[in-house]
């Protein structure tokens, strides 16, 4: 049982505010991922929760207890670092034992716990190896094991997979998800990799420049991004944007006019918006359709064939590149003129300040 | 050569070998001048020392000469001064090592912290190392510890205490302190760079594991420093076995032989008593001791460096 609550948390370095008032509540057993571009403050926020950074103002509550001034070791948390931070002069067993020993746990109990965890993580053959003799994936497992043996209330992960190669990263991602389901511990995970965020999280917190841009389930962020930043950040390749002029709307949708003069009727509500306002239409590459002729035409500049899918980069008359994700077997070639069809149901509409308009219908998976 | 060239496949190998051998010979010839110079440089003094150590040879008594056998060694080894100076040598080495490595480790950790004026403080803590031994010995003897006009004595009198005449009452301890003052910066310098190379996330991991500063020092920082410490011990030992200037300037080995180490004993035999034979015997013994110490040190350090 562990909940974490952040109440208007702020962090100031000298004169610069890094974390600008973040409020968030994390439920018991929840897997929360902090995601954002580098320098967004996600690692700082995690380190503030861990107690490695001071909290300038605001409250941090773990299980309802204010822990702002509690030592990191006494908060009941365990952290897995990006560099693993194993103690190089201790073998695997001693690495896992260190925290338990300092906590004054009796020897027999320590041994039992470590052996149990080593069995779970398939580390038994390596218990008496030094970290230097292990591979990257094994070290990663030891770091996770060191966190698990302490039986923490909350697990903290700071970009734990970024030092692994792509294949191993995919494997560890699945293992971590399975482990979380098995242990059922509250977990906070920091990453800049949106695949990790999308696949592992119960709840994603998108951060930018020390501010929360959106909190929600992975599919909520995907289908209903709250603003341009989230729309651009979640999804790969990123969402395409078209400048447009708002023409009018009601409760069933809003009409906008694109650059080439065509009109689009997007099913979003736009209360209080004046006709003539400049807005932005967003659509994901996987939702754009290609036609041989019609409005919105451009020239194919690059084609990336990934086997299962094909990414078609189309240069529009205004110089902008629009990415279209097609089936792997699509025959379109470079330098041909194509026309883009934007299915209105998959379009997003953003006000001049970047905030998305409310969709008339929520996506069933993102309710 | 002709015959070799005529017999084909099997002889190719031997001609290859011959070519190698001639290349090796050329290399050896080119190297030999410097090897020869080095050989002369180190072997001649050693052989001369060995030779004089078995001779009756006193500069002030030309009548006494000829082969002495092991007499020089016998006199030296049975001389109570010799044992005393041997003991002093080890006390001096061990004491300075303890102070400089112990204090150096603590200071290194201290100077690794972030505080105002750290850059200047670091330069100041390292500066005694740049002062030559003779000068620092004079500084301590005349400016700091002089019983009448030394700074320390003035401080003692200022609070109504009688200053101690350090060099007269605790000669070896005082020499040890002066030498430690010179070598502490060296230890701090090496150990500080070692502390700085410790991965920050490791310290943080230890904090998360609930380690207080003392536990972090004991279980994380100290093991990390062990290599650097063994290097400091080795280098310092080599220099400390031959401490001379500080003793010569401050106490001249006295009172009696209270602060005489092996190096100073050899000096006093050769250049104060003009007994070349006896001094040479002392030199040979010093070489043997230094080699014994070196073997142990190199073994210990090599083991530490491998891990």
What can you tell me about this protein's structure?
The complex is a heterodimer of chains A (about 375) and B (about 300). By secondary structure, chain A is an alpha+beta fold. Chain A has two domains: about 230 residues, Rossmann fold; about 120 residues, Nucleic acid-binding proteins (OB fold (Dihydrolipoamide Acetyltransferase, E2P), Beta Barrel), CATH 2.40.50. Chain A is elongated and about 75 Å long. The model of chain A has no long low-confidence stretch (mean pLDDT about 90). By secondary structure, chain B is mainly alpha-helical. Chain B folds into two domains: about 50 residues, no CATH class; about 240 residues, Orthogonal Bundle (MetI-like fold). In chain B, helix 2 crosses helix 14 and helix 4 runs parallel beside helix 9. The interface between A and B is medium-sized, with 24 and 18 residues. Chain A: Belongs to the ABC transporter superfamily. Chain A: GO terms for molecular function: ABC-type maltose transporter activity; ATP binding; ATP hydrolysis activity.
Structural class of chain A: alpha+beta
Arithmetic mean pLDDT of chain B:
85
The chain-level mean pLDDT of chain A equals: 89
Query: Which H/E pattern describes the elements of chain B?
Result: HHHHHHHHHHHHHH
Helical element count of chain B?
14
Q: Return the CATH topology of the largest domain in chain B.
A: MetI-like fold
Mass-distribution shape of chain A: elongated
Main interface pair? A-B, 24 and 18 residues
Helix content of chain A: 10-25%
Q: How is the main sheet of chain B built?
A: none
Give helix % range of chain B. Answer: over 70%
- Roughly how many Å is the radius of gyration of chain B? 27 Å
CATH superfamily of the largest domain in chain A: P-loop containing nucleotide triphosphate hydrolases
Number of H- or I-type helical stretches of chain A: 8
**Number of domains in the coordinates of chain B?**
2
